[in-house]
Amino acid sequence: MKKTHPQKLAAVAVGAFGFTLSVAAVAHDHADRDHRDYHKPAQTSQVPTSGLEWFKAGEAAVLVNKRDVAQLRKAKNVILFVGDGMGVSTVTAARILEGQMAGRDGEFNRLGFEKFNNLAFSVTASANQQTSDSAPTATAMVAGIKTNDGAISVDQSINRTEPSAEVTAAKSVKTILERAEERGMSTGVVTTARFTHATPAVNYAHISNRDWEADSNLPAGATVKDIARQLLEFPYGDGLEVALGGGRSYFMPNTIADPEYPTQKGRRADGRDLTLEWTSQYNNSDYVWNKAQFDAVNPASTDHLLGLFERSHMRYEADRAQDAAGEPSLTEMTEKAIKILEKNRKGYYLMVEAGRIDHAHHAGNAYRALTDTVALSDAVKKAKQLTRDEDTLILVTADHSHVFTIAGYPSRGNPILGKTAVDGIATKDGLGLPYTTLTYANGPGWTGGLQRKEFNPANEGTVAAAYAGSKLRPDLTAVDTANPNYMQEATVPMSAETHAGEDVAIYADGPGAYLVRGTLEQNVIYHVMADALGMRK
Amino acid sequence: MFNTIFKFLSKLFALGLLIVLAACSHVPAKQAANTQIIDLSAANLPAVAAEFVTTRTGEEHEHDEHQALPAKVSWRFWRDSQQITIERPQLGLGELWQRDGQELIHRKLYHQDQRAIEFQAGDLRMLDITPSWQKLALLLDSQLLDKLTAEEIEWTDGIPTREYQGKVADTKWHVVMRLDVALPALIEREHGEFSERTELLNAYPLKAAPWQPTPVNGYDVIDFADLGDKESDPFVIKVQAQMGHEHHH
């Protein structure tokens, strides 16, 4: 699977001016960092225990912000982390869960990216939606425009099911990744979802319908290329250097057995094996599909890496250890990607997506949504370790939120996955029943009491269901709501929980991060990245 | 969201059905010299095709959750070492379970729409639906059989059967297992006013089955995890509206 080629000569000309600037920047950074550390109460793990300590901690946090002057220099690299569906309530609950799982004060804990110095709200409404799906929101972030539901880096004037390649090309909007490739930068995309899923796809594909991931998904007569094919026929620069995620079946023909699941075959009807084409068209390239192969990849000698670790989406972080073939974590993929991309002296653009936060929320399962959020935080921490604040802009945001709430008045330290309790005594609802702190406004966790309906397989419809007892909610007294498979209750009955329309947060650090403040339209994220990279015309 | 479906299936498998074997059975009427008694715990059970009918009376109440099932359902079953298929022809629906190494892959098949919804192992785990292959293959939990009183093997028209009876968790069970094909010939269960009876109508060696599963090679397969992001897909809207709801803990 590996194709080797003599290493290309790296650019070696580094001007004296650049060197001097670099040294100066490093020296300044070290001095500044020492000073900042002295005033970093927000990053200590020690919880204030008195009014005076809380006051000092708050005062010190303001001093830190006063000292952190804007980094006005251009960024060499940009990393955009996206937690798919990671609304503010998800961040808060994940912060508490991470802290509690580590035996710390959960409320005082902070995820890795919450320590970033710059913060803004992102307005996620798309061109035609109040509450959006991932296609237009991801397009906004990487192409700089708002567009319609389902659209992958095409503008809002296109029809949702436009089959024509010519029309699609005319409506296409160049992405930050494509512009980076044009400039000779390295580029990569890492995701735990299918690589052809909306958020990763917006970087390298242009298509009116996010569901057209393989050629077998295209309508008859369509001339537009499917999303997987567009990765291999990418026309800018020298193509993506890193492509890691799931969705192997969309790259394999329907005549070839999957390497991990031999009873299953690919989805492609055109007979093309795009995994083979990857290694044949790129020098120093490799294709891997399991953890052992991934671990064996040497970033120093690999210039184009394709990793597809599942037929469809990769595992939730909570289930990853149970994959027989093994999957790398989001952190491991991020590290490998950076080590491949950073070889390019012109810099790089990398998107890293925690794609399954969204899926767990849709299924009404808070545990997996939160543990995948913690996994994203870990990946951000790794990226911070591997990069330098003075030349790498790191953004962390979400494409949209979910109808996920943290409710009641639980005591500080109450288990976030547990039932709401004050000093260990369960709080009761109006029916006299205990309830969980985490719930959903809609979704499959609807309990419905006397109003419930059930599936009727006789006619594939629903019928009123009989209900034992008089309770309108289940009694959770004996239920282990911290069980990873527990489905939180929902208010409105829906088979899949939905996205939410409130703003999401943008966290930013590094050159250009000072531009992230206030309430921004989501497409501003692209312009922040472009400005930091000096792409603004 | 699909708990109801799964629960229905598990009830079909693990709980009720009844088999009337002999009369309609394809198996020889007299004991054949080469008839083998299958160990129900064997890793590989015989490849078979079978036809069942399930009838129910009353309403089932269990943990405040209820199934609204039709009074009578006919269904077909195909089993080999790696795959189990179930179809309800009159409804155009099917279920597929595939064993791939240590993983279990499940698809719900919508034949009229030529589409399928696939559940990955992680989805099944998250939904607390992790049936053992043995349970799927036997249509019954072998642990349940262990809790029932088992009679001696009887031979009827050359067919070995074993009868099981007993009460487990307020449910009264009567099961007859056909040991030549490792399938239930009859499953009866009762609790309260509810009763369910599933009976085997016909059983064939898989290669001799008079009917085959509906071909699904060209079906558009949707991931269960993607349903929430396909809010505008008419098929998904239809299926989700049909699913009903069931909270599980």
Automatic annotation (TrEMBL), chain A:
Zn(2+) 2 binds at residues 84, 358, 362, 399-400, 499. Residues 1-27 form the signal peptide. Binds 1 Mg(2+) ion. One of its GO terms (molecular function) is metal ion binding. Keywords: Magnesium, Metal-binding, Phosphoprotein, Signal, Zinc. Zn(2+) 1 binds at residue 353. It comes from the Bacteria. Mg(2+) binds at residues 84, 197, 199. The active site is at 134 (phosphoserine intermediate). Pfam families: Alk_phosphatase (PF00245). Transmembrane segments: none annotated. SMART domains: alkPPc (SM00098). InterPro entries: Alkaline_phosphatase (IPR001952), Alkaline_phosphatase_core_sf (IPR017850). Its cofactor is Mg(2+); Zn(2+). Belongs to the alkaline phosphatase family. This is Alkaline phosphatase.
Automatic annotation (TrEMBL), chain B:
Keywords: Signal. It comes from the Bacteria. This is Outer-membrane lipoprotein LolB. Residues 1-32 form the signal peptide.
